[in-house]
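Bug report (template v2)

What were you trying to do?
Predict the complex of my protein with S-adenosylmethionine.

What happened?
Run completed; filing so the output is reviewed.

Input:
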Amino acid sequence: MNKINGEKSGMWRARLRMVEDQLRGRDIDIEAVLAAMNQVPREAFVSEALQDHAYDDNPLPIGEGQTISQPYMVALMTQLLDLHGHEKVLEIGTGSGYQSAVLAELSAKVFSIERSYALSQRARKVLEGLGYHNILLRVSDGSIGWEEFAPYDRIIVTAAAPQVPKSLVKQLADDGIMIVPVGNRTHQELKIITKTAGGLNTREGEGCIFVPLVGREGWREG
Ligand code: SAM
């Protein structure tokens, strides 16, 4: 995929440093995930004013009170999804579109839902500009999933849920994997859920802090 349009001078160096220090230097060890993180220009997904911070080791504001996640968290969740290039992935919380782009590098098709019209529109422009054609965006309440294209091989929720949304479990394919941060409004743990013939297998991953999933199977507004 051609990323020349998203490339700003010197940014490739900062990106490579991020991959080596923040990702490989921690526990990201799947080469395809590291390559995808080195491919997607994070600076294209943040405002002009934050360009120099695009590869900082933390989340950044993207407007509407929302954030683009820390690069490490994007890579970690992607690694946990165990993608091999042929999967149909549902993402809840498009935000800037950065995670969608990373997923699109590693899977067949990404379906991404955002509740904010303004953020979804901005993400669409950036993703189209970068030449991604395997991402379908929608504005709606992602806590109830996207029934029309279910089941999904993988589901990733990039906002904090009070409990695992039942609709999303239903829309997960057999042998599918879902990653969702579950906890209270200020702290969560990643839940890694695998759907098997025998039922659901759930294990707990890293502690994390996400903005709330607001919706029918998430938190109430406010
Ligand atoms: N994945 C994003 C990225 O790479 O920039 C970061 C996502 S941000 C941490 C969480 C996003 O979830 C916010 O943009 C927020 O508006 C969105 N969100 C919250 N509740 C939602 C819901 N019920 N359906 C869809 N999006 C939701």
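What did the reviewer find?
The radius of gyration is 16 Å. The pocket of S-adenosylmethionine is lined by residues 66-69, 92-93, 95-96, 98-99, 113-116, 119, 141-143, 158-159, 210-211, 213-215, 218 (CB under 6 Å).
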